[in-house]
Structure formats: C-alpha cells, structure tokens
Design goal:
The chain is mostly helical. The chain is 73% helix and 1% strand. It has a two-stranded antiparallel ribbon with strand order 1-2.
Amino acid sequence: MSDEISHSCEDSTLSKNGEYIQQPVPSNDSSSNDNNSYKGNQCVKSLDVLKKSRVREILFILIICSSQFSTLLGAVQGMPQIAAIGVSFNVPADRFLILGWANGAFATTVGSFVILAGKLGDVLGHKLIFCIGYGWLALWSLITGFSRYSESSPIFYFFCRGFQGIGAGLLTPTSIALLGKTYPDSKKKNYIFAFFGACAPWGIVCGITFSSLFTQLSHWSWAYWSMGIVCTLITAMAIIVIPSDTVSECNKGLTYRDFDYLGAFCGISGLILFSVVWGQVPPDTFHAPYTYILLIISVLLLIANLYIDSKVKDPLLPWRSMSPENIGVLLCVFLAYTSFTVWLFYSFQYATIGRGDTLLNASARIAPMAVTAIVASVCNAIVMHYGILPQLELLIALVCICGETILVGSIASHQTVWSE
C-alpha cells in the first residue's frame, strides 16, 4: 500500500492551468514501463472522472476525509460516558476499572486491523474496502446503541465497541490510499492531506462534545445511534461518488492462495490478546492466572507472525524490508499517539472529577484543539510545499505533545493555564 501511495501518481504532473499531464518514463525494462504506465493512467482516470464535476470532486474529498473524522469521533465516544455506563450496567465500585474498555475495545481493534485493511485494499481495491468499512462502522454503531438493553453486564457493550473499531480500522489505510493515488504531487495534494489531518482533532472535539451532550441531556446510546445514521448516509454517498479503482498492477499476479492468511490470523490475534491482557491488569492484576497465560500466548502469536511474514511470498507486514529509520519513525508516532491519548483521557477526567465540571463544560475545555488543528494543518501544508524536512515537523509535534502533558501534569485544580 505504501508503494501505491508514494508512487501511484508520480508520472503525472499539474500544469499551471490545472491540467494533468502524463509524463513519459524512460526505462529499458518493459515490465517497468507497463507498471509506470498503469500507475499514471490510474491517477489520470480517477481525476478525469472527478474533473467532470467540481461538486463531485468536493464530495469525494469530504467523504474520504470524513473517514478520519469518524474514526477519531468513534474512538473518544466512550470517554464522557464512563460513569453513565457504569450506572446503566450496574457495575460495582470494585469493578469500575473495567469501564476503561469503553474506549479500549475500539482502540484495540482499530490498531489490529489497519495493516490487514491496507493489504485487502491492495488486492481487492481500496474503494470496496472503504465502503465495507463505513458500512460496518454504521452497523455496529447502531448495535452498540442497542447494547443498553443488556443491563446485566457491560460485556456485550464492550464487544460491540470492539466490532465498531474494525470498521474504523478498514477506513484509515484505504482513505489514505484513495487520496494518494488520485492526486499527483502538487500544492493541491498537500492541502488536501492537510485537511485530512485536521479532521482528526475535529473528530475528537465533536465526538467528546456530542457524546457529552447526549449523555448529560438524554441517554448515552443516542451518541451511537446518531453516528450509525450518519455513517449509513456516508456509505451510500461513497458508493456513488468515489470513482471505481483498479487493483494495483504489482498485485495482479497474486491469487487468493498467496494471501498471508496465517500471518494475518497470528498478527491480529496476538495484538488483540496483548491489548486485552494490559487492559485487564488494572482490575484483576497478574494474580489472575488468565492474564499471564494470555500474555504468553499473545507474545508467541506475534513471534509466529514475524516468522511467517519472513517466509511467505506476499507478507502482511514486510518487516525485513523496513530500514531502521522507518522503524524509528513508526516508534515515534506510536509513542506520540499513546502519549496524546493518555493526555486526552486524563485531561477530561481531571476536568470532571478534579474541577467538578459538567460533561459539556469539560468538553468546552477541549474545544480549542479544533482551532489549533486548522492552524497546524495549514502550516504543515505550506512547509511541505517549500520542502521542509518531515523529520523537523515530527520533532515539533513531539515537543508539543510533551509540553501539553507537562502542563496538565503540573497544574493545580484551582489554576488556569492561560492566566497563570
């Protein structure tokens, strides 16, 4: 998938009047010529369809970017609902820590299915997987709302949240691939990806706000029902608006027998079990035998996944071809997202418990993130156009995340950051 994103449109350029020009690529290798021709043609075909209607192109961009918005919105829905969910399912005080799965179940499956979704998109087509992902997210959002009626235990609710996350996991890599192979390298593409990135914090702000609104003024289940309705509408629009894409030339020689089924099973199962273990350690500790047994099984599955991916023809995760620099970047991004998630969760809990804010007042404290997201995304698009090193941008982002964590960790309950 990464090759498709990086190179699918490298043979097409934008002229000053906005026309898309196919550039010849000299090569002595006929297969290379065929592949380059395919990539450029794929980019031009999608753009030709979108150029026929400016409205359709705008809808295409909004639909693809909405996947980032919906994924982060779904990820934080459970955050303001923890106390209300505990009351709805009669969770005793000594088991209150299990309610962390209100967010944890969604995050676990999103992270576990991202790599699989990228490979499925390469093999079956990114539009197909994108539409399936949105449809799946819509279905399980509705079912999650109906889980309110299983009042005896929150287990079914956690189960639904996990399945809801599978749909979001299918959206993330396919949306990036659709944008990447539709638009050639240009200033326009930089701004589109900047808008795509800005949709993430907007999704967080809207997810927390509307979840707080429904939980405080009505019932938490309406947050999921409303999301399910909106996702259903977006699914229908995506089927109509997104141009049909073609399976990548580099994957045409592969068959279903070549797909890394065993590696996918070991990798996804290992990641889910590993997450389950660390999610259950707070309420049950390692004194419960199942925790360390599942931990051992999860580690063995992940090791098996690495071994299988080193042997198969088309690995799910080609880790052998990854350079130390790539691994370092992925590690930095992983730690950054982890730190940001911890900051967001405890900032909200601090506002509601430490300061005694209502859910809506606590949501208002998160709202400035939407404004700074726009500023950061526009600046990012500008510096990308002028060739600023991505490493420098990543460093600035990491410093900002570190700074926000220090501010929240050092502030007293009566203090206000901006005035003091």
